[in-house]
Specification:
The protein is α/β, with parallel strands linked by helices. The protein folds into 2 domains: 2-161 and 328-341, Rossmann fold (3-Layer(aba) Sandwich); 164-327, 3-Layer(aba) Sandwich (Rossmann fold), CATH 3.40.50.2000. Helix 1 (14-28) packs across helix 13 (330-341) and helix 2 (64-74) packs parallel to helix 3 (89-96). A 6-stranded parallel beta sheet has the order 3-2-1-4-5-6, sandwiched between helices. The chain is globular. It has helices at residues 14-28, 64-74, 89-96, 118-132, 142-148, 164-168, 191-204, 215-222, 234-241, 258-264, 296-308, 310-324, 330-341; strands spanning 2-6, 32-38, 53-57, 83-86, 103-108, 137-139, 177-182, 208-211, 228-229, 244-249, 269-273, 289-291.
Length: 343
């Protein structure tokens, strides 16, 4: 069976990482998997099975919107006789208009219209509302399933999880930093929250490391004197995570949020603002600390508490490890492929 996965960019975004896990599992099961991405938008460090194809289509344009428009019009011509998996409202319309497809699944990993503002946000909301009415909508987790029921009738949901590598790799307990921060530029990731906390971190001597695949962001924060790192693969990312006691998440909205769960699998306790999706696995004061939006004082006091209370940190770290073992993704993906894709 041919499985086509159109994406707006082959990057290390959590949503793409989930699709990569799905693609690798489908490939292991003997299916032909083809990623389709706009030309010039393939930048990733994760491992793909050697027989998975990544095809760049369309024109290499600097404008994101023009690149997307070109991709929408060109991509359907590359899809022939197979299943299409979409994970974004833009790729939903690619799947919808691919007249030679056999079937398609819209795997919603977040309410994308919340990521945009202004006229672009208005257009995104209309496109999302239309796509969520589809009879092929499948939610990435139970939280999103319940949200999507307000817009349409999703057919089911995944118990989204993480790569076995994060769960099974040897755990290095030598800590160098107090916390790790995943540096991202999207508006809903709320980097501004992190920025306004920097003076507090400095005042009380909290150490941290930033990780990102965005070279411009890395250069910007290196110039501020911060410790920044660009992992080249999952093994390198795990090595950095293992050097930290805690993880800080500043997002205002997440459909799932993969990094906190990946950190929990390494015994690293997430501290986060309320943002939705992580409630699938994050339990306040058990395996994580979750604070109200913009309660910066509680973020700082929570970091301080766990950094200085080794007994509490050890307890929550063990709870995080236990939780992560319930999110082994391989068997869930195999069931999804057999039940919803290949039927």
């Amino acid at each position: 069976m041919n499985i086509y996965i159109p994406v707006l960019g082959m990057t290390n975004h959590g949503g793409v990482r989930v699709l990569v896990q799905l693609a690798n599992q489908a490939s292991k099961m003997g299916h032909n998997v083809i990623f389709l991405a706009p030309k010039g938008k393939v930048h990733y460090v994760f491992e793909l099975n050697s027989n998975i194809l990544v095809n760049e289509v369309g024109l290499d344009l600097k404008s994101k919107i023009l690149s997307w428009l070109c991709f929408i019009f060109v991509c359907p011509f590359y899809i022939k006789n197979g299943i299409v998996i979409a994970n974004h409202f833009v790729t939903y319309f690619i799947a919808f208009f691919s007249w030679k497809k056999d079937k398609f699944i819209y795997l919603v990993q977040g309410l994308e219209f919340k990521c945009y503002s202004g006229i672009l946000g208005f257009i995104a909301k209309i496109m999302c509302y239309i796509s969520y009415k589809s009879k092929f909508v499948f939610a990435a987790n139970k939280y999103l399933f319940e949200e999507l029921r307000g817009y349409g009738n999703p057919i089911g949901f995944l118990n989204l999880g993480i790569s076995n590598l994060f769960i099974n790799k040897y755990l290095n307990k030598n800590k160098k930093y107090d916390f790790i921060y995943f540096l991202r530029n999207e508006k809903y990731k709320r980097k501004d929250r992190f920025d306004r906390l920097l003076s507090d971190f400095d005042a009380i001597g909290i150490s941290f490391v930033c990780v990102s695949q965005d070279e411009c962001l890395l250069d910007e924060y290196k110039n501020k004197g911060l410790t920044c790192y660009q992992p080249q693969n999952d093994n390198e990312l795990i090595e950095v995570i293992d050097q930290c006691k805690l993880m800080l998440l500043t997002s205002e909205h997440e459909g799932f949020a993969l990094p906190p769960l990946e950190c929990m699998a390494r015994g690293v306790v997430p501290i986060m603002y309320e943002c939705g999706g992580p409630s699938n696995y994050a339990i306040n004061n058990y395996n994580s600390i979750i604070v109200s939006p913009d309660d910066d004082k509680l973020i700082i006091s929570s970091l301080n508490l766990l950094i200085n209370d080794e007994i509490l940190l050890h307890k929550m770290s063990n709870n995080a490890l236990k939780t992560s073992k319930n999110y082994d993704f391989d068997s869930e993906l195999e069931n999804f492929i057999n039940t919803y894709l290949i039927q």
